[in-house]
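Risk register update: the risk that structure generation would not scale has been downgraded. Supporting records follow, first protein first.
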Amino acid sequence: MTQKTDEATPFARIGGEPAVHALVERFYDLMDLEPRYAALRAAHGSTLADARRKLSWFLCGWLGGPDHYVQRFGHPRLRARHLPFAIGIRERDQWLACMDQAMGETGVDEALRQRLNQSFFQTADWMRNQGG
């Protein structure tokens, strides 16, 4: 698949693949370090290396860049792939807060950050499979 280079894509606005990688690295670093993300971290097992790669690949395509994830694994099937994990309101909210903090700390433009937060909320809420 060819890489999209449209300057209007969130991928281009965020700064391309290096910026997506930096965002994902900060996201998982925060998850590992911040006690307020403990429930979210507990759902990820002992190592975060695989999750880091997969989220980085996924976000590149989701933001309008290269579809690394789809090329490797096919359609993301996000909900189906996350069904084995208990995802309730607490996990959703921790994921969203962690990603928002990571976006802030990696310098994502405020307007784009707000837009992404809305999209992330819709997706994260749809992923819930627990009531609380």
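Supporting record for the second protein:
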Amino acid sequence: MPLSEDEQRILSEIEQKLYETDPALAHEVGSTTVYTASARRLKWSVLLFVIGVACMIFALSVHFLLSFGGFVVMLVAALVFSQNLRSLGRVGVQQVSQRLSGSGVRDFVGGAGSRMRERFQREDESPED
């Protein structure tokens, strides 16, 4: 059910007063979503997984128990990732992926790929003596 004009006016006045009185809170409320905490935990779990892989590989030359510790870190990170991915749900995953695509990650990776293709094409097309 859409809001009436009077309700929309009242809502915009409340929003304006919030921005005037506490701009930091207004920015925080505007930028935070239901999925923000889970997405943050997803990022940390990926980082922890990578650290676990590195620990497992490098500790293997020292002692196998240290390497096993790296494996346990990887396992815990994978479980945390799985749990937070489930809590996000389908809509949350779509929102996080849209945010990632909007932040330029795909442009950065795609740009690197196109630069590599251009380099190889230039080398292939170089004039022959």
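The chain has a mean pLDDT of 78. On this basis the risk owner (M.S.) recommends closing the item.
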